[in-house]
Amino acid sequence: MKYLTVFFLLTLSNIIMTFAWYWHIKPSNGNYSLWNIVLISWGLAFFEYCIVIPANHFGANSGVRPFELKIMQEIITLLVFTGFAVLYLKEELRLNYLISFIFILAAVYFAFKR
Question: The whole model's pTM is what?
Answer without folding.
Answer: 0.84
